[in-house]
Amino acid sequence: MTPSPVTVTVTGAAGQIGYALLFRIASGQLIGPDIPIKLKLLEIPQAVTAAEGTAMELTDCAFPLLHSIDVTDDARQAFDGTNIALLVGARPRTQGMERGDLLEANGGIFKPQGEAINAGAASDVRVLAVGNPANTNALITQAHAPDVPAERFTAMTRLDHNRALAQLAAKLGVGVGDIRKLAIWGNHSATQYPDLFHAEVGGKSAAEQVDRSWLADEFIPTVAKRGAAIIDARGASSAASAANAAIDHVHTWVNGTAEGDWTSAGVVSDGSYGVPEGLISSFPVVARNGRYEIVQGLDIDEFSRERIDASVAELSEERDTVRKLGLV
Ligand code: NAD
Ligand code: LMR
């Protein structure tokens, strides 16, 4: 028997990430190779025609799993019945814009989207904020969807996680598949903390296989500033790697983490590791029974503590700013 279709909403569908993401979703890579997909694409009115062009190309791929495609500029219509909401469209920072202005502009996008999710999404809806500032955009969305369990709102740090895996694998001359239990803590920003102290390579501590100066002066800044390095090199922010990470995030959420491993995701804090309750911060997480759960009981040394605290302080500041703006 064919499983029922899953409805996936993608905002910012006419953008760069949208173009790298939609074909992979329609081909069955988001959830599983047997599950039909109904796509709903949300764009601003000026970009609806471009999104329709992408929809025409999706049709022309004749993907067996692609059940239907709707393109709209109406958030209520886009999130009606949605099971998975990928919030990619966001307001980028432009010259002269302060951080507060950026948060306010994004509040204008994510508040109505939260309200629309609250009003019409399916009861099992899962939400991933990709558009920056991803953690606080997820928080704004969640604040406006009080009827949806808070744990369903997440922010993407899987790209940072994947970047960290790739940097460590290259350093040690191993495959990324040989690395376990790496973690990104905090904000998806340059303050994030990629943590090697619990990571294992070949069953042994990763931190013990690299020297401390490489870890502190090369690994951490390379991972944390990789987004900016890509923008410098490409003249545009990462798109295919971001789309890939979004696919990984949802696929893991639905299908689970491998035994003996974990991944990283921005999830609502329950106060674990001193991260204020309610902030959407990145943690080491396992996915079980369709839920992300924060890995508990890890020892955090002084080196890690300082860096986690710094990134979490930035998240708290962002929350204070959006609170003052009445957005959460
Ligand atoms: P882009 O500018 O190419 O596309 C963004 C699209 O969003 C545009 O088509 C725009 O019309 C649309 N949009 C704007 N407001 C909207 C709204 N209210 N509703 C629906 N659509 C709307 O940008 P991109 O390269 O696709 O990146 C999208 C976002 O993802 C950016 O904020 C970027 O910084 C962020 N990003 C996050 C990560 C991460 O790891 N979390 C990585 C890369 C990029
Ligand atoms: C990334 O990590 O590649 C992006 O978040 C960078 C950006 O500012 O869009």
UniProtKB/TrEMBL annotation:
InterPro entries xref list: L-lactate/malate_DH, Lactate/malate_DH_C, Lactate/malate_DH_N, Lactate_DH/Glyco_Ohase_4_C, Malate_DH_AS, Malate_DH_type2, NAD(P)-bd_dom_sf
Lactate/malate dehydrogenase N-terminal domain ranges (all copies): 7-147
A Pfam family reported for this protein in Swiss-Prot or TrEMBL: Ldh_1_C
**Residue sites binding substrate per the record:** R93, R99, N132, R163
What sequence ranges are listed for the domain Lactate/malate dehydrogenase C-terminal?
157-322
TM regions (residue ranges) = none
Show the active-site residues: H188
EC number, UniProt record: 1.1.1.37
Q: Which domain of life is it from?
A: Bacteria
Gene Ontology MF annotations: L-malate dehydrogenase (NAD+) activity
The catalysed reaction is:
(S)-malate + NAD(+) = oxaloacetate + NADH + H(+)
- Report keywords, A-Z: NAD, Oxidoreductase, Tricarboxylic acid cycle
Q: Which Gene3D superfamilies match?
A: Lactate dehydrogenase/glycoside hydrolase, family 4, C-terminal, NAD(P)-binding Rossmann-like Domain
* Chain residues that bind NAD(+): G12, A13, A14, G15, Q16, I17, G18, N106, Q113, V130, G131, N132
**Would you kindly state one Gene Ontology biological process term found in this protein's UniProt entry?**
malate metabolic process
The record, for NCBIfam families, names: MalateDH-SF1, PRK05442.1
Q: What does this protein do?
A: Catalyzes the reversible oxidation of malate to oxaloacetate.
Q: Which family does it belong to?
A: Belongs to the LDH/MDH superfamily. MDH type 2 family.
* Protein known as: Malate dehydrogenase
According to its UniProt entry, this protein's organism is Halopolyspora algeriensis
